[in-house]
Amino acid sequence: MRIVVTGSSGFIGSYLVKRLKDDGYTVVGVDREPGTPDVVDRFVQGDLAQEQIRERALDGADAVMHLAAAKDDWGIDDETFFFENLEVTRRLIADARERGIHDWVFYSSVAAIGPGDEPRTEKSSLKPSGAYGASKKEAESLLRAYAEEEPEVSCIILRPSVVFGPGNFSYTNVYRLIEAVRTNRFLMVGDGQAIKTTSYIENLIEATMYLWERRSSGVQTYIYVDEPVRTTGELVDDIYRLLGKTRPGIHIPLDLAKAVAWISDVAASVTGINFPITAARIEKFNTSTNYDASAIREAGFEQPVEIEEALQKTVNWHLDQVE
User: Fold this and answer.
1) Beta strands in 78-125 (DSSP E)
2) What is the pTM of this model?
3) What is the mean pLDDT of residues 265-279?
4) Predicted local distance difference test score (pLDDT) of residue 289
């Protein structure tokens, strides 16, 4: 089977490409940027918004695993989110449909559901916050409509929470947190009681392949997060311990921190510099992202890497990069 992996040079895509090759699949990688692992059978570099890039990528393909997306918490406007995450997906579906390519994995996000203190499941109403989540929600709708019209369609929609692990980018949340603790630049904001679900990269790839190998017709939607879920305070404690550091006993009240962060927000708007501390990031850190991934576990999946090992691997990799 020949599988097209979009976003193949990205963090998740790079891991997925290697796993597919290990499992004997023929893999076509597609990305704007170089960096796709050289194990791919073919690499198409270019923008999926362009018809000729989609044609080259889909030539001879049997399935699509669609990861390419705009995602960041700074510097991307709403129009870009909807074009990259919704319109490009629309075009990709149309071209794949013309070629009779009906097997899909679509990497959505828990952002399509929206945050909340109470556990959110696949049955929860979708209340995305922000253009990223809204664009992912609408892209999911395209695939559901496609499946309703084409009974041959098999589509797995996977909604991971914050993905982390060795190789994660320097602008991602867990990387920033580890680096702030390592360099003694971290101060706890808030009471640390917000629930923060995460998805370790190896577990996410295993979950993907588990669902892929058991796919059926129609759309199957799953949340993926690691268990047990933890609070921000517990996550911070773990990182301090794994770095061999002692966590300071003080914390900054949330309202005070947001007021101070307003200064960096103003500076960012003037200079165009992506400062590590913003009011939005402080708010996000203190907002629960409580998602319940019991459905995939009830389907028989067991996460292979426990939280302690996942964090230890990530911290070790991080230290290797900065030394």
Assistant:
1) 103-107, 116-120
2) 0.90
3) 56
4) 85
